[in-house]
Amino acid sequence: MLTGKQKRYLRSEAHHLNPIFQVGKGGVNDNMVKQIAEALEARELLKVSILQNCDEDRDTVAELLSKGTKAELVQVIGNMIVLYKQSKENKQIKLP
């Protein structure tokens, strides 16, 4: 579990990132969860964008993604989700 201080740090790190995944009309599926999990292993921190035509609400999408990838939900802001998961082989982010 992340502390408030760690979440603040991760939010500032994620600020300049561009979203590399988009959740649209199809919602969250197994293939997407698998791809996001792989991307988290490589990058540790990433943004997911929720498109206007997504059927599920953003909190549901955030919960499905964080549970499916076993990642920490750092932030849901607007239609952006920020996820963090410490990498096994590729540690880049040093948490405070």
Plain-language structure description:
By secondary structure, the protein is of the alpha+beta class. The chain has helices at residues 4-14, 30-43, 58-69, and strands at residues 21-23, 45-50, 72-77, 80-84. The protein has a single domain (4-84), classed as YhbY-like (Translation Initiation Factor IF3, 2-Layer Sandwich).
CATH top level is Alpha Beta
Characterize the overall form.
globular
What Rg is obtained from the alpha carbons, in whole angstroms?
Answer: 13 Å
* Number of helices, counting only DSSP H or I runs of 4 residues or more: 3
How far do the termini sit from each other?
Answer: 13 Å
| Strand-residue proportion | 15-25%
Structural class: alpha+beta
Biggest beta sheet summary? 4 strands, mixed
CATH topology: Translation Initiation Factor IF3
Mean pLDDT: 93
H-E order:
HEHEHEE
Strand line-up of the largest beta sheet: 1-2-4-3
Q: CATH homologous superfamily - what is it?
A: YhbY-like
Per DSSP E runs of 2 or more residues, the count of β-strands stands at 4
Provide the domain count.
Answer: 1
Which regions are unreliable across 5 or more consecutive residues at pLDDT < 50?
Answer: none
CATH architecture: 2-Layer Sandwich
Summarize the structure.
The protein is an alpha+beta fold and 96 residues long.
